[in-house]
Amino acid sequence: MRDEIRQQATTIIARIPEGRVTTYGAIAKMTEGATPRSIGALLRLLPEGHTLPWHRVVAAGGRLADHGGASEQRELLSAEGVMFDAHGRIPARFFWP
To answer: Which of 8, 65, 81, 90 is 20 to 30 A from 74, comparing alpha carbons?
Structure first.
């Protein structure tokens, strides 16, 4: 991913308000050339100790992506007041923007 696109993506992710989520695809659409997969790769490669709210980025349809940090992500989102339905999806009222 080009540095300009990485900067755009991290700026967008940093602006996701507490208690809200957005998707990899939505972030990609707000940049000048990222893809949902490249957003996922960016988040996977964040250095330890970063402060970017990675947990606020979810898969399409409001589901948590299948990754090793999914249980931590669910805990962090729940602590911010984000709810999950009976199917594990996040209702539309929690989506940003």
So the answer is: 8
